[in-house]
TrEMBL record:
Keywords: Membrane, Transmembrane, Transmembrane helix. The chain crosses the membrane at residues 20-42, 48-69, 81-106, 118-143, 155-175, 195-216, 223-240, 252-271. PANTHER family: PROTEASE PRSW (PTHR36844:SF1). This is RsiW-degrading membrane proteinase PrsW (M82 family). Residues 399-408 have a biased composition (Pro residues).
Length: 408
């Protein structure tokens, strides 16, 4: 039997080498990021290295916070990496070129030096930057729309794009603060941009992410929803830039606005997560006759706490291999429920639905077999049953009973 790649099945792709389009996109984004860094370093002097260090330090924590929103059905690492690199590369370099050209040839000649910078920051930059950031989400909607299963996915991908963009942009802000006001001004800017509200760009682009996610999971609004999301991102960005130029009062207003948007996005994610749990409880009982799920297993799959406990139990009784098998089983079951969600909304091609369903069921079967094989070691002490199963026969993860001295 050919070896099955669980990650390829979960991500809905052909196993093997990364797609050429992904390699090309990462390469182009990396080159653009290198050029943008080179230009910034050329004009930055010693302040560039200070700015780069301060911009990079919070990124791992911010990425972890963004990914925490998507624990029930984590997105493919390669897609997340592409989104981050697009924001840090293509979007940043494109914004650098277009914003500079707009200042030099449009806003400053028309409105003058002071007003030209205000018009550019409030109206020009939001349109340019949000369009460039949103382009990554539009690309995913075009080529990988089946990977976007709901609003949480759109928010996470948008957050990755925004974090990449913000990291590169913050280098410039920190560099200028260090060169103009020394460590005192640098500290103030870092507190405002890096600690109090480091998620402004991810929040702006999340509006585009919501629109793209709606288009990916509904039959209507294929054009209107992404464009409405992009418009929302531009408006929020413009409000931020315009209010920030009004001093501390303006900053206080936009910080409160951003906080309210952040709370709203978290609420959306949690409401959607509860909906996914309900779909697990609705759709998976139909597969009980396959022997791959039992009512107790479905109860485990419907709780993040129970899923974590199941993975811990699997690692205890079967080691790392059993833990990986349990994780693959849980993710495949979740993807199966989300597949039915797409079918109910009429956005799943029937032939693709059948092929995807069979692949996920096959992965669930292989994952369970891999787990049970870890229990067949003759020297292993027979473990207690799954913590979520009540009594014998309560779970497909119960190892078979060993034969007695006179056979079974």
């Amino acid at each position: 039997m050919a070896r099955v790649d669980p990650k390829a099945v979960l991500e809905g792709r052909i196993p093997g080498r990364p797609p050429v389009a992904l390699i090309a996109g990462m390469t182009v984004s990396g080159v653009c990021a290198a050029i943008a860094l080179g230009v910034t370093a050329l004009y930055g002097g010693p302040g560039f290295w200070v700015g780069a260090l301060l911009a990079i330090v919070p990124i791992p924590v911010l990425i972890a916070l963004a990914l925490a929103l998507d624990r029930l059905e984590p997105e493919p690492p390669r897609a997340l990496a592409f989104s981050f690199m697009w924001g840090a590369g293509v979007a940043v370099l494109g914004a650098l070129v277009l914003n500079t050209a707009g200042l030099l040839y449009v806003t400053v000649p028309i409105f003058g030096e002071s007003e030209g910078h205000f018009v550019s920051a409030t109206f020009g930059a939001p349109v340019i930057e949000e369009t460039l950031k949103g382009a990554a989400l539009f690309v995913m909607l075009w080529v990988r729309r089946n990977e976007i299963d709901g609003f949480a996915d759109g928010i996470v991908y948008a957050a990755m794009v925004g974090l990449g963009f913000a990291m590169m942009e913050n280098i410039t802000y920190y560099m200028r603060a260090f060169e103009e006001g020394g460590t005192e001004q640098l500290g103030a800017v870092f507190i405002l941009r890096g600690l109090i509200m480091p998620l402004s760009h991810p929040l702006f682009t999340s509006m585009t992410g919501l629109g793209v996610a709606y288009a990916a999971t509904h039959r209507r609004g294929q054009v209107a929803a992404p464009l409405a999301g992009l418009l929302g991102a531009m408006i929020l960005h413009g409000l931020w830039n315009g209010a920030a130029s009004q001093g501390l009062g303006g900053l206080a207003v936009v910080y409160v606005l951003d906080f309210c948007i952040l709370v709203a996005l978290v609420v959306i994610v949690f409401v959607e997560r509860r909906g996914t749990v309900r779909r697990i409880e609705t759709y998976l009982p139909a597969y009980a006759e396959t022997g791959l799920v039992t009512p107790q297993d479905i109860r485990m799959l419907g709780s993040l706490h129970a899923r974590r406990a199941a993975r811990r139990w699997a690692r205890v009784v079967g080691g790392p291999a059993a833990g990986r098998a349990m994780a693959d089983y849980q993710l495949a079951a979740t993807e199966l429920a989300l597949l039915h969600k797409r079918a109910d909304r009429g956005v799943a091609d029937p032939r693709w639905f059948v092929a995807r369903r069979d692949a996920l069921l096959g992965l669930m079967a292989l994952a369970r077999q891999a787990f049970l094989r870890t229990q067949a070691h003759p020297r292993r002490t027979r473990p207690s049953g799954p913590p979520w199963a009540a009594g014998q026969g309560g779970s497909g993860f119960l190892p078979p009973s060993p034969p007695g001295p006179y056979g079974r």
